[in-house]
Amino acid sequence: MAKAFFRLQKFLRRIQFLLFFLTAAYLMAGSLLLLQRTRLVLQQGSRGTPTNQALPVLEEMSRVGIMEPRSLQSPRPGPRLLVGMDALQEPALDQRHGPHWLVSRNSELRQLRRRWFHRFPSDQEPLQTAGFKAMKHTAEHKGTYMGCFTHDSRERTLKGAVFYDLRKMTVAHCQEACAERAYSYAGLAYGAECYCGNTLPAAAARPEECSSECKGERGSVCGGVDRLSVYSAEQLRAAAGPRRNVIYRGCFRAPENLTDTFPASLIQSNLTVEMCSEFCSKKEFPLAVIRGQECYCGYPTRRFPLREGTDGRRCSGPHNVSSAAGGEYCLVYQTPVQDTRCTDRKFLTTKSKVFVALSSFPGAGNTWARHLIEHATGYYTGSYYFDGALYNKGFKGEKDHWRSRRTICVKTHESGKTEIEMFDSAILLIRNPYKSLMAEFNRKYAGHLGYATDRNWQSKEWPDFVNSYASWWASHVLEWLKYGKRLLVVHYEDLKQSLIPKLKEMVEFLNVTVTEDRLLCVENNRDGNFKRSGAKRKNFEPFTQEMKALINSYILTVDEALRGRNFSGLPR
Question: Nearest to residue 413, comparing CAs of 366, 370, 355, 468?
C-alpha cells in the first residue's frame, strides 16, 4: 500500500512540473504575440487608420441598418465580405453565361453599398489628436464671414444650388461651387451641406449655434443643426469673370408678350451677352433671353418651352446681338444659375405601400434616371447599395436603408429570383448593351465621371469583362421579365430622345402627380451632376468581331423575350 502511494506521489510531482513548464511556455508565447501585434498596430497607425477602428465601424454600420448583421456574424470570409474589405482584390470574372452565373455576381453587387464605408476611415485624418482645437474661421477661404443664420430646409433663403460632401466639405469648396454658378453667398450647414444664393437669410442666430466642424477642414465652422454659416463669394465671382459657364441654347421664336412671359427685364443700349447674363444671374434666373437691346430673364414655361429651335441665321448668328432685333426671334442663353423649381426633395411622409424597384444593368443610366425621377416627383430615391459619391452629389436616399419605404423607388442591379420577388413592381431600364458595357467599364476603372485609359481597354480585363458582363446584361432582363410582378419597361434611348413623354409615364407608374412647369424644370436640368467630363473619342471601337457576335446573339434573345411579353422590343 505504501509503495503504491509513493508511486502516485512521484507521478503527481512530475505532472505538477509539466504543468508549470507548459504554463510558462504559454505565457512566453503570448507575450511574443502581443509584442508583434503592437508593432503591427504602430506600423499601420503610421500609415493612416488605426486598426482598432475596424470593428466599431462595422458595428455602427450594423446598428444604423446599412450593413446586414448576418454578414458580421459569419466567420467565413465569403464573397459578400471579401469584396467589401478595402476592395483589395477584384473577384475573378466567371466565364459561364446565363442566369445561373448570376448567383456569384449578385453577391458581388451586394457589396457596392458597403465599399465606400470600408474605404471611408482610410480617407480621413487619424481620429486621435493632440487635443481639441477651438473652432475658428480660418483664413484659407476667400471672402467675408457674414455670420450665423437660421436654416429651414423647407423654406430656404439661399434657394440656389445645393451640394453635399460627407467627407471633404470645406468653406473654400462651397464658396467656389457657388461662385461658379454666379451666386453671391455660400452657406454651410451640418458640416457637410452647401447652399448658394444672392440674398442673405433674414433671421440671424447666435454665433455659438454654428458649431459643426467642416468634414474636410478641421477648425473651420460649417453651420450646425438648422443653422447656416454664411460666407461671401463676391471675390471669387469677380475672379471667375463675367462670361463663366454661359451656354448658348439657340435661336427661338419669341413669345407674343415677352413681359408677361418673363418676370424680369432690362433695356440697355449696347447690350451684350455678358451684361444680360450677369443681370439674370443676380436675379437668380436660369435663362437670359436677348432681343435687340432688350434682355429678359426667366424659366422655360408652357409659353416658352425651348423645344423647337429655329435656324440660327434667323437671329443673324449667336453672338451678333444687335442684329437680332427683328421682334420675331430671340437669342437664348443658359446662365450659371440653377433652375430651382424642381430641386426641392424630401422623403415620403408615410411609408410607401408599394415597394418599387428601379432596376437596370450597371451602366444603363440608373443614376441619370434617379436624377430625373427625384426632380420630377420631389421625392428621394433609395438604393440597394450605398455609394458615397452619389450621396455627396445630393442623392440623400443613399444613406437611408433600402427597406425603409421612405423613398419613391429603390435602385437595384440585382437579378436573382429572391431579390426580384421582394418588390411589388419595377421600372426596368434597358440600354444598348454596347453602350452599357463601355459605361460600366469606364466607371469600374475611372469612376462615375471619368474614362478608362487606353491601357485598360487594351488589357486582358476588357475581353474578360465583355465575356462575363454581356451574358449578365441579357440574363438581367430575362430574369426580371420572368419573376417581376408588375413592370414598366423603359428604353434608355427612348428616354433620352423623348424625355418629357417617357418621364410622364414613369411618374404615373409611381402614382405621383406633377405639374408641367416642374417637368420643364427637369428638362432644363436634364444632365444632373453625373455627365462624364472630357472629350469622348470619336469612332472608338473596342469590340472585336467575336465580341460583336456574342453581344448580338444576346440582343436577339432579349428582343424576342420582350416582344413575347407584349413589351416594345429593343430600339433599332
Answer: 366
All cell numbers assigned to 530 = 453625373
Task: Count up the domains in the chain and report the number.
Answer: 3
Residue 186 lies inside a defined structural domain of this protein: yes
190 domain-assigned: yes
Per DSSP bridges, beta strands 185-189 and 227-232 are antiparallel
Q: How far is CA 255 from CA 260, 294, 303, 304, 407, in A?
A: 9, 14, 7, 7, 39
CATH number, position 556: 3.40.50.300
Cα torsion for 435, 439, 441, 442, to the nearest 10°? 140
Average pLDDT value for the chain: 77
Note whether 224 and 210 are within 8 A (CB): yes
Q: Which of 255, 239, 152, 154 is nearest to 202 (CA)?
A: 152
* pLDDT confidence band for 31 (50 / 70 / 90): low
Copy the grid coordinates of residue 315: 437671329
Using DSSP's 3-state secondary structure scheme, residue 155 falls into coil
Place of cell 470645406: 170
Strands 193-197 and 185-189: antiparallel
CA distance 483 to 421: 6
**C-alpha cell read off for 156:** 430656404
Reported as a pLDDT band with limits 50, 70 and 90, residue 120 is very low
What string of H, E and C letters represents the secondary structure of 70-87? Answer: HHHHCCCCCHHHHCCCCC
Tell me if residue 135 falls in helix, strand or coil: coil
- Span 400-422, mean pLDDT? 94
What CA–CA distance (Å, rounded) separates 547 from 532? 25
Lookup result for grid cell 437669410: 201
Please give the Cα distance from 239 to 245 (Å, whole number): 13
- % of the chain beyond a pLDDT of 90: 41
- Would 127 be classed as within a structural domain? no
d(CA 270, CA 517): 33
Give the domain range for residue 387.
356-530+543-564
Stated pTM of the model = 0.69
Which residue from 184, 185, 173 is spatially nearest to 228, judged by alpha carbons?
Answer: 185
Strand partners, 193: 164, 189
Measure Cα distances from 524 to 67, 286, 342 in Å. Answer: 37, 9, 10
Residue 64 falls within a domain, yes or no?
A: no
Same domain, 525 and 414: yes
Going by C-beta distance under 8 Å and a sequence separation of 6 or more, which residues neighbour residue 188?
A: 169, 171, 174, 194, 195, 214, 221, 222, 223, 228, 229, 230, 231
